[in-house]
Each structure stands twice: as structure tokens, then as C-alpha cells.
Amino acid sequence: MSQAAKTNYILNLYPTTKLLFTLFIALSVFIVPTYWYAYAMLPVCLIIAIAAGQGKEFITLVRNGLLILLVFIFLMQAFFYPGAQILWQAGILKITQEGILYGLNMTSRILAIGSAFILFFRITSVKDFVYSLEKLGLPPKGAYVVLATLQIIPEMKKQTSVIMDAQKTRGVETEGTMMVRAKAFLPTISPLILSSLASTEERAITLESRAFSAPVKKTHLYEIYKTKHDTVVRIGMLVALLILIAGRILL
Amino acid sequence: MNSVIKISNMSYKYPTGKVDVLKNINIEIEKGLLYAVVGPNGGGKTTFCNVLRGFIPHFYRGDLRGEVLVNGKNIVESTLGELSLSVGFVFQNPFIQISGVKETVFEEVAYGLENLGVHPDEIRTRVEAILKLVKIEHLRDKNPFELSGGQRQRVALASIIVMEPDILVIDEPTSQLDPQGTEEVFEIIQIMKEKGKTIILVEHKIELIAEFADRVILLHDGEIVMEGTTQDVLSDEKALSYDVMLPQYAMLGLELKKRGVPLRKIPITEEQAVEEMNWWMAERGVRI
Ligand SMILES: Nc1ncnc2c1ncn2[C@@H]1O[C@H](COP(=O)(O)OP(=O)(O)OP(=O)(O)O)[C@@H](O)[C@H]1O
Ligand SMILES: [Mg+2]
């Protein structure tokens, strides 16, 4: 992480604290019945993202990952949710009050939970997250698989373009319409899969040569710690959760 | 003799193979010596290394007969984890020797020590020292995936020797290196030897073997056809019939001998050659 990251309180929180926050949001939108609360979680996440210096990336991910899905779901509900209070009708198409309400409820929750997870992965490095999981008892093999998979993805992307170029020089069309690209997909992907299968065996041997299964307890050169900020945030979330539940029961 | 590895009547066949790739191997590896393993391609050198590290039979199954003792313990009864404490193995192919979970060369080299449970402070000191020794300090913050073949080979070597195993098995560590890099790797191997490590080195560069190795093992078609001191093996014409080059000085010496020049011994290094020639000329009353 960069020097700036080291001084950012939000980025410096322990990964499980950040995960708890995400779960807190996911839970709270089911406790609080109004959709405007759930919608309000988007700006909340955005503010946190901005404070962590990740505002732009956050917005882009929400837009690319959630927007179309939400619009689609909303329209589906508005048009097809059964209801009596008809607001607009044309032939068999009708929009009902209930449909709109249901659509708002559903999309607001998906948006809130989606944003919370996007926020989590924007402000938590995979390395930190896996480290905390390992501390929680995830076996080293599991931790390795998660880390290796995530590190290998950018490598795979590079390899894909190398293979694509190779296929192009052999006359395989790799650009153009969907159909053309679909046809190019198989010859591109199969060497990739074959080579990664072959390297699994080698990878296992490499790990062994680096004492992966040595009968001792591993240490970590890179360590992260919980600080008093984590405690404060966790207590804060607990209090907020209790208030929400109390409010739900009393009101 | 203080032997760290003892192999008796060992033969091995790969699970997919039809014939034995190693045939009736008998050898004792003495502590603190540098053994060079030579032989033509496909002779079984890498397979031999895999046996020493226990990857055969623990990883590659196949059919292993005979007995292989490492530090007195049969490798069949040891686990790979136990063997990792005593035998370090640097592979022939530098492109696969990356953990795949580390973002910098520094962390990559530290990985084995983390697995060995070394305290982080000590890890830092040891990694620093090795980066310096292997001359890759300038690569410390680079992504291991983005290294050249030669750079990877050095990182691979560093990653293993930092773990300080007593026995080092090194399979063609200089295949991707330029002459300068090769020279440097041999210097590192020399330093390891001075630290008392037992080293089994597969290498084709015969001049360097002549200079650095204590003993030479010649593997041909899965058999140890020659074994002995570097001087004996590398001055013996018989090696040529097993497709192994002799050092140019040995070739010169053999040629001279054939032509009736009475050398005391066949030189295998430049130094010896100069010495022999001086002696011979002095014998004949030539002044220089
Ligand atoms: N995984 C394997 N499965 C089956 N056969 C193998 C395997 N690896 C090597 N062999 C065979 O074993 C024989 C010895 O191979 P080995 O790799 O040990 O040779 P080498 O002396 O290291 O050669 P080189 O100088 O090319 O590295 C070869 O005939 C090879 O085809
Ligand atoms: Mg080999």
C-alpha cells in the first residue's frame, strides 16, 4: 500500500471490521422497512469511499455493475407485479402502485447490499482480507488458493492477449461481431486451460520446495493489527444495530 | 567417510514410462563436498535430483526400488515437509519457481522462511543478506511475474539458499544466464560450499565444473557410468564416449600425451595446464 494509505483511518481498519460494516448494512436494510433508508446507504457508502480516496472507482463499479440490473428489475416489478391500484395502462401493459412500491423496495436493498460489498472490496486489499481469514482459522492451503487465484487473473489476461495474437497470426479472426469472437474463443481458451493444468503440478512442486508443508507453524512477514479504531467502529455498529432493532419493535 | 546421502541399488520408472529411467544407482554423497552431475540430455539428471529431494516417490509415483537414505533416514518414510528442512532444490525451469502469491521479489524470497516459521525480524535480515549475495537487491520491489529468465533464475536460487538447508540440489542454475551471471552463480555456490553445505549440482559448463567441483557423477542412460574425483573423471577420455565434453585443457593434454609428450597428469583447468606446460618446458631446458 502507498504511503497515503498508511495514514488513512478507513483503509487502516482491520479487514473483518470492514466486513462487519458491510454485513451491518446488509442486515439493517431488512430491519428498517422504508426504501429511502436503503437508498440512503448508497450516499453513505459513497462518502466512506471518498474519505478513503476511492470515490471515483466506487462510482464506476456501482454504475457498471449495478445500474442496468436495477433498472431492469425495477421495470419488471413495476409492470408485472400484481396489484389493484393502476397508475397507467396501455393494452395488456399496466403499471401499478404496488408494483412501483415493490420495485423500489427490492432495488433499494439490492443497491444497498451491492454498494456495501463494492465498498468493502474497494477499501480492503485481498492480501489483508486473506491474512485476516487465515488468522480466523482458514487453513494455509485455502488461503493459498484464494491468493494465487486472484494474483493469476491479471497474468491470465496477459496470456490471453498473447495467445490471441498468436491465433491472429495463424489466421484466426479474433475481432468483429459476437459470432466471430465466439468462434475465436475456443482456440484461445483451450491453450490457456491446458497450460494452467500443466502448471498446477509444477506449482505444487514449487510450493513444496519452499517448505509449504514443513511441520511447523508459519509466520507472516506482513502483519496487520486491530487498533482502537476497530473497537470504536465495532461498538458503534453494535449500538446502531440495537437502536434499529429497538426502533423496529417499538414503532 | 561422513555421508549425508546413501543410495543403494536404486532403480526408478516413471508411472507413464516403459523402462527404468534410473538403473541400479549406488552412491554415497559425502558431507561438505560439491558434486557435479553431468551427462547428455535425457540421461536422468533431473530425475536423480527429484529422488534426492523426495519428489520421487512422494510426488511422482512410479516404481522406486532400492534404498535412498538422506541423513540416515529412508526418504520413503520421510514426508516432503520433513525433507524440506534438510534438502533444498532449485529447479531447472526458472519459469515455474514462483510462489504466485507474492507481490515483490523481497516477499518472494521470504516466502520459504515464513513457511519454516522463522521470526519476521530474522526473515528480514536473512533476506537482505541473500539479496545482496545473489546480487538482486535492485529487483527487491519488482513483481516476480515480471522478471526475465535470468532474473528469475537468481530469485529462485536466492529463495532456496535463504532457507539454509544442509543439502542443496541445484539443477542447471545457469541455463538462462550470460557468462557474467554464470560466473556469479558459481561464486555463490562456492560460498555455500565454504559454509559447509553439501551440494549436488547439475551443470553442462564443463570448464566451470573442472574449477569448482570436488567430484563428478556421469549419468548416461540412467546409469552412473563414471564417478570419482573431478580430476579423474574429467581427464578420462572415456567420458567422451558418453557424450560428455571434457575441458579444453584436458583435450589439449590428451592430445599432447598421444603425441608422446610425457605429462605428469592431464590438466583440467587453465591453472593446471599452465603449470604442466611450465614443468614440461623446464624439463626440456626451455627458459621463459
Ligand atoms: N514426468 C515424467 N514422466 C515420464 N517420463 C519422464 C518424466 N520426466 C522425465 N522423463 C523421462 O526420463 C528420462 C530422463 O529425463 P531427465 O529429465 O531426468 O533427464 P535430464 O538428464 O535431466 O535431461 P536434460 O539435460 O535435458 O535436463 C527421459 O527419457 C525423459 O523422457
Ligand atoms: Mg534435466
Automatic annotation (TrEMBL), chain A:
CDD domains: EcfT. The chain crosses the membrane at residues 12-30, 36-53, 65-88, 100-121, 231-250. It is found in: Membrane. It is a multi-pass membrane protein. Keywords: Cell membrane, Membrane, Transmembrane, Transmembrane helix. One of its GO terms (cellular component) is plasma membrane. This is Cobalt ABC transporter permease. The lineage of its organism: Bacteria, Bacillati, Bacillota, Bacilli, Bacillales.
Automatic annotation (TrEMBL), chain B:
One of its GO terms (molecular function) is ATPase-coupled transmembrane transporter activity. Keywords: ATP-binding, Cell membrane, Membrane, Nucleotide-binding, Translocase, Transport. It holds the Pfam family ABC_tran. Coiled coil: none annotated. It is a peripheral membrane protein. PANTHER family: HEAVY METAL TRANSPORTER. This is ABC transporter ATP-binding protein. It comes from Brevibacillus parabrevis.
